[in-house]
Recover the amino acids of this structure.
């Protein structure tokens, strides 16, 4: 819009657009000023791409004007195509493990609560890396990003919750699978892949999701306060009595646990057979947990986490729940082969605001597996 | 989209820079701000009257692009300004329509009969093709004095319609009666009274209107008029909003409609009612006077549900006879 101003006398500026939206401060005023100064605005057929809707031939531009209800022909010396802004064509996002939106621009942590932050701690974004914006907005965001970075640097140290992953080097075989899955690049590969190599956890970068612990097949990584033995003990305890009518629910700290909590706060009724086990992220759930649950005869196992859709994820650990989804599909195939009805292993995405949904999902799942196992309630399996 | 697809035989409308810049300079880009919402089309009385859409919106689009009218619809507009009262963008729609009309004059694309109205203005000093000599016929038995700056407070500007039209003449005579009752010293210009040129203005012939306005202003200056009261609301609007007679100027002329002046007389106690008038009042929504607050009138209420109450002072006083203490 800034570029649209009436040119030298004798030159007329005309704008043919699909639609025009002015959203930043003073932009509407600028638009009006341009209109009053004699810049003509046209809208072309929105159902067609510009190259089809607009024809330029023999110094005439032809297109259909909706408002007039007829074809318009404009004598013109020059037709300039203003192309849209595209994200930079590089692999910076991949290198820094930054999330990006569908159109390829970097994504902020939260549109309101973290507009200059990214999901990766210590990395901040500003300006057109995030999307089309004007200088004023870029400046504001750059100042915010600089302020955030400055605050980090000024302190000289950072405070972490004591949830960062711990490596048992004796058990590590150097397969480096954890290095690949870490959503924060917090695991450093030391030495070559294989027996001679090992890993080091960068505690400053580790956010404690537990994706690596679940990925490790050799129990070389464990999560403090969510250790494998602790969780297995919870599973055992939950299934001591009448395991066949119990539904074991794995929840993540941020969304589904809060959703279950909300169901309680809202006094919603859901089957009393639910047994909830909390971890920080759904990516912490490992196959051994599910296996132990079925071994103990659990009626059903429900895996829950933050919402994951085709267009994005609400995951609080930089899309770690994408891995949960992948693992879940793998487990279902695997347990089916082992003769366990896949209906008994379910996955649901539940947000912190969905107490009602949590309760109704629980209802449905319990109804389903009861139909499967019959009404053999109170009979130890 | 197919429903908007033009017929293949329809020739494209070509935008012409010359016509566009003529319209732009004539209207000052009045239509530029229009965002084509179509409220004007929805509220235009013509739509209801004809039972057929009168697309003011498309006229505004044509005005934006400098395209002359193609179907004669622009000549329907009576410049009542209903659309302007509702326009969310504050577009001076009548100004844009007058501009389009001027384009039509330029293209010689006016409806038959219109040129003769302008000729009547030129030859007869009125749009009604009436002889100038009978302009003061309505007052022949009233013994009205010609305006004299030293003797008279106000100049009563009767205007063409109120001078020639039989029904309007009654209004004029009633106004004179009221002024006399209030003891107002006033004069009129009789056969020398200039036409305000509203017809030329509304028909969009801006150059001719400018010429007429110049002539009328010269007459007022010559007679040293400083306070002018009109009978016709159209004369009032034309003098007040389309003439360059600045009221703040020392040599400026104060212009009022007779209803405003009467209101003033009532307030000053010069005009007294004979008794309480306990009557229900129905007011014809006068386009020129009440449509826009610009003319010194204001209406309360939204104006959309038919429950408006007239807040014009005179009518207010008459509604509340108790306030008058009678």
């Amino acid at each position: 819009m800034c570029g649209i101003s009436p040119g030298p006398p004798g030159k007329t500026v005309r704008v043919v657009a699909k639609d025009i939206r002015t959203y930043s401060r003073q932009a509407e005023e600028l638009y009006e000023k341009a209109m009053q100064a004699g810049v003509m605005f046209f809208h072309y057929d929105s159902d067609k791409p510009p190259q089809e809707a607009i024809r330029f031939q023999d110094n005439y531009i032809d297109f259909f004007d909706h408002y007039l209800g007829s074809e318009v022909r404009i004598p013109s010396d020059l037709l300039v195509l203003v192309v849209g802004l595209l994200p930079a064509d590089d692999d910076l996002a991949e290198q820094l493990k930054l999330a990006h939106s569908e159109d390829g621009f970097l994504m902020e942590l939260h549109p309101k609560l973290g507009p200059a932050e990214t999901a990766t701690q210590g990395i901040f974004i500003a300006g057109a890396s995030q999307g089309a914006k004007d200088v004023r907005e870029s400046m504001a965001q750059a100042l915010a990003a600089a302020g955030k970075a400055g605050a980090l640097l000024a302190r000289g140290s950072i405070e972490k919750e004591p949830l960062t992953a711990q490596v048992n080097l004796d058990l590590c075989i150097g397969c480096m699978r954890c290095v690949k899955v870490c959503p924060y690049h917090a695991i450093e590969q030391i030495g070559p892949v294989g027996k001679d190599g090992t890993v080091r956890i960068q505690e400053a970068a580790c956010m404690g999701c537990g994706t690596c612990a679940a990925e490790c097949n050799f129990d070389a990584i464990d999560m403090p306060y969510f250790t494998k033995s602790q969780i297995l003990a919870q599973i055992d305890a939950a299934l001591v009595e009448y395991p066949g009518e119990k539904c074991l629910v794995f929840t993540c700290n941020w969304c589904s646990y809060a959703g279950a909590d909300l169901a309680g706060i809202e006094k919603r009724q859901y089957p009393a057979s639910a047994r909830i086990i909390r971890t920080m992220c759904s990516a912490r759930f490992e196959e051994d947990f599910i296996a132990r649950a079925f071994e103990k005869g659990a009626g059903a196992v429900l895996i829950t986490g933050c919402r994951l859709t085709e267009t994005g994820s609400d995951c609080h650990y930089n899309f770690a729940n994408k891995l949960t989804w992948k693992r879940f599909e793998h487990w279902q195939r695997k347990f089916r082969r082992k003769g366990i009805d896949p209906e008994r292993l379910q996955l649901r995405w539940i947000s912190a605001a969905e107490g009602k949904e949590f309760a109704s999902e629980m209802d449905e799942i319990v109804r389903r597996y009861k139909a499967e196992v019959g009404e053999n309630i109170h009979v130890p399996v | 989209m197919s429903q908007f697809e033009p017929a293949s035989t329809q020739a494209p409308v070509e935008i012409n820079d010359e016509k566009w810049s003529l319209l732009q300079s004539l209207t000052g880009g009045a239509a530029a701000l229009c965002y084509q919402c179509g409220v004007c089309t929805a509220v235009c009385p013509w739509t209801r009257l004809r039972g057929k859409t009168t697309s003011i919106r498309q006229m505004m689009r044509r005005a934006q692009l400098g395209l002359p009218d193609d179907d004669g619809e622009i000549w329907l507009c009576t410049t009542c300004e209903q659309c302007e009262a509702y326009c969310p963008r504050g577009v001076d729609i009548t100004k844009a329509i007058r501009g389009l009309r001027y384009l039509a004059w330029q293209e010689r694309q006016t409806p038959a009969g219109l040129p003769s109205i302008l000729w009547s203005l030129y030859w007869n000093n009125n749009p009604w093709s009436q002889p100038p000599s009978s302009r003061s016929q309505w007052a022949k038995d009233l013994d009205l004095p010609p305006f004299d700056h030293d003797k008279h407070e106000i100049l009563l500007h009767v205007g063409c319609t109120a001078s020639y039209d039989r029904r309007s003449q009654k209004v004029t005579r009633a106004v004179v009666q009221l002024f006399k009752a209030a003891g107002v010293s006033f004069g009129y210009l009789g056969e020398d009274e200039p036409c305000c040129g509203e017809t030329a203005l509304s028909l969009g012939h801006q150059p001719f209107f400018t010429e007429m306005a110049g002539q009328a202003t010269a007459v007022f200056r010559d007679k040293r008029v400083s306070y002018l009261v009109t009978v016709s609301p159209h004369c009032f609007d034309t003098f007040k909003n389309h003439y360059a007679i600045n009221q703040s100027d020392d040599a400026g002329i104060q212009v009022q409609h007779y209803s405003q002046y009467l209101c003033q007389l009532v307030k000053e106690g010069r005009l007294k009612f004979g008794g309480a008038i306990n009557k229900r009042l129905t007011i014809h929504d006068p386009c020129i006077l009440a449509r826009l607050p610009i003319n010194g009138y204001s209406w309360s209420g939204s104006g959309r549900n038919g429950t408006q109450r007239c807040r014009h002072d005179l009518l207010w006083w008459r509604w509340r006879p108790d306030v008058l203490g009678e």
